[in-house]
Amino acid sequence: MRHIKWSNPIEIGFAHGSFQIVTGPSEALNCMANLWPDRRGPLYVAARSVCRAAIDGRKSAEEAREMFISATREAHLKTH
Q1: Which Gene3D superfamilies does UniProt cross-reference here (predicted)?
Q2: Cα–Cα distance between 56 and 74 in angstroms, integer?
C-alpha cells in the first residue's frame, strides 16, 4: 500500500474534545473505520472509495482530501 501525504493535513474534532490529525488517504481510511460517528451517509461511502483510488493511483491525493472533507461535513465533524 502506498503511503501518500496531502499538501495540508486535516485536524478533525470528535465528541468529548478529542481530535485526530489526518495527513493522507491511508490515515483517512483508518479514521473512517475506527473513529467515525454512526452518521455514515453517501459522502462517507464516496470518501472511502476515493481514498482507496488515491492509494491505488487512480485518483489524486487532493481529490481524496476534498472528498474526505465533504464526508466530515456530512458527519457534522469540525475540521481545521
Answers
A1: 6.10.250.730
A2: 25
Q: CA angle 32-21-56, nearest 5°?
A: 55
Total residues belonging to the chain:
80
Question: In angstroms, rounded to a whole number, what is the distance separating the alpha carbons of residues 19 and 58?
Answer: 29
> Is the model more confident about 14 or about 51?
51
DSSP strand E in the chain: where?
Answer: 10-13, 19-22, 78-79
Prediction pTM value: 0.92
Q: Around Cβ 20, how many Cβ atoms within 10 Å? A: 16
How far is residue 68 CA from its own chain's centroid? 4
Neighbours of 29 (CB within 10 A): 20
Name the residue ranges covered by the structural domains of the chain: 10-79
